[in-house]
Design brief:
single chain; mainly alpha
Length: 179
């Protein structure tokens, strides 16, 4: 499944073929097709596995934020670190973007896409709670949109850092406190 994610990240979902995945994973083609009877099953299982890992990662960070008292700057910096481009995370980020796009075409993936966004919104709520933002659930989707948009921009432009994320988050926090 990791090989599938690597292929998706490098060449998109259209490049997922049984032969290519078997070669990338270093397994026999027959073994791959035994466990995954179709490319759709392989694709779905790979993307769903990524979502499970991402949900667990975000849940852990959200729990950590809820257990501490952070200044607004510390919380914003934590968000920036969370989405900072780590070479090992690029594969997952690209695969996740493909998941959301593919979910628009494949209703069977929509629950996974929604689950991923729910985890991001829970994380964003934890950040906003730690900043004493009133009605944090109300503003969580704006934080998620910010994170996803800046990640897309970073990946699309080849930028290798998440600079500006903390500042953008602080803009939302200041606006939420003013409302």
């Amino acid at each position: 499944m990791q090989a599938t994610l690597r292929v998706i990240a490098s060449d998109g979902i259209g490049a997922v073929t049984n032969r290519r995945i078997a070669r990338e994973a270093g397994v026999a083609l027959g073994s791959l097709t035994y466990h995954f009877p179709s490319q759709t099953a392989l694709l779905r299982d790979s993307l769903l596995r990524y979502v499970e890992q991402e949900v667990a990662r975000l849940g852990a960070v959200a729990a950590e934020l809820r257990a501490t008292t952070a200044t607004p700057e510390q919380a914003a910096a934590a968000v920036e670190r969370l989405i900072a481009q780590d070479p090992s995370r690029i594969v997952g980020e690209l695969a996740e973007l493909e998941l959301h796009l593919e979910a628009a075409r494949d209703p069977a993936l929509q629950a996974a896409s929604a689950r991923c966004f729910t985890a991001y919104e829970d994380f964003a709520t934890a950040v906003l709670e730690s900043l004493d933002v009133p009605s944090p659930e109300r503003h969580a989707s704006a934080v998620v949109a910010l994170m996803v948009g800046l990640t897309l921009r970073r990946l699309g432009t080849g930028a290798h850092d998440a600079r500006g994320t903390a500042e953008a988050l602080m803009t939302i926090v200041r606006g939420a406190h003013a409302s």
